[in-house]
Write a structure and sequence with these properties.
Blueprint lengths: L2 H34 L5 H7 L2 H13 L5 H4 L7 H25 L10 H36 L5 H26 L4 H25 L3 H8 L10 H5 L1 H32 L3
Helix pairs in contact: 1-3, 1-6, 1-7, 3-6, 5-9, 5-11, 6-7, 6-9, 7-8, 8-9, 8-11
Organism: Isoptericola halotolerans
Protein name: CAAX prenyl protease 2/Lysostaphin resistance protein A-like domain-containing protein
Keywords: Membrane, Transmembrane, Transmembrane helix
């Protein structure tokens, strides 16, 4: 069989193996906490983000060889300039994407946290993004790297939707565990799960914009949601809660389309 037909099939097997291993590890970990009656610790969430990366690493090296990692993971050397550009792009895109739905939620009875509280949180958001990026890289090499690369010929929206649904399903065991342990309400578990799928196209668009997973790594690490910009009483109101979530779900693919359009213009302006 010609090598050019063998390689895509092997890449598909490697992706299936990585996704299956990630799901199995997440389900196993959640079952352990449910059976033991132990609350899911924050450390497990951080380590859980590394599971897809470990699964992808093992699958790609075992079936294809480590020489394919950089290509499949959309991984460029992390030079200081690349990291700074990717970090800046992530913040420039994510902050308005999260802020605008919260502001629009004012029409549905939402109340923003006081300005001094929000300003005081900015340094924490920036530092948190840098720290959490150490773990989100584990997810991004599989979802926006290996899987997005494999499905790229399906077109951006179809591929990012498929990846988003798989990424969402990966989070289902954890959110169900939170629901069973009372950490999340039913509404919060549903909204948190659906938000993952809505987020996927924007992260994929950032990868397309820079040609590397790094901006998605930082954007994924931003420790903020639209609801966190609102007062606790606002979030407790069902109308405000769902309106703000729905606005965020609309904002994310909309901003993704803007990023893609901007990327196309930049590519068109580069001399051939």
């Amino acid at each position: 069989m010609p090598p050019h037909t063998t390689l895509p099939r092997t890449e598909l097997r490697a992706a299936v193996l990585a996704v299956a291993a990630s799901f199995a590890a997440m389900v196993g970990g959640c079952l352990m906490f449910l059976i033991s009656g132990t609350d899911v610790p924050d450390l497990f969430v951080l380590l859980g983000r590394l599971l897809p990366g470990v699964a992808s690493l093992v699958a790609v090296v075992a079936l294809l060889g480590r020489d394919h990692l950089a290509r499949l993971w959309r991984w460029r050397p992390a030079s200081p300039r690349e990291l700074a550009a990717s970090f800046g792009l992530a913040l420039v895109v994510m902050l308005p994407t999260l802020v605008l739905p919260a502001v629009a939620g004012l029409a549905f009875g939402a109340e923003l946290e006081p300005a001094d509280v929000l300003l005081a949180a900015l340094p924490t958001i920036v530092m948190g993004t840098l720290l959490f990026a150490l773990s989100t890289v584990g997810e991004e090499v599989l979802w926006r790297g290996q899987l997005q690369s494999l499905l790229r010929d399906q077109g951006f929206w179809r591929s990012s939707t498929i990846v988003g649904l798989l990424w969402m399903l990966f989070h289902v065991p954890l959110n169900l565990t939170y629901l069973a342990q009372g950490t999340l309400s039913t509404a919060e578990a549903i909204a948190t799960t659906l938000s993952v799928a809505a987020w996927a196209p924007l992260l994929a668009a950032l990868v397309e914009r820079r040609g590397t997973i790094w901006p998605a790594v930082f954007a994924h690490a931003v420790p903020l949601s639209s609801l966190q910009l609102l007062t606790a009483s606002s979030v407790a109101a069902p109308t405000t809660f769902w309106a703000t979530n729905i606005l965020a779900w609309v904002a994310m693919p909309t901003v993704a389309a803007v990023v893609l359009r901007r990327s196309a213009r930049v590519r068109a302006s580069v001399p051939v």
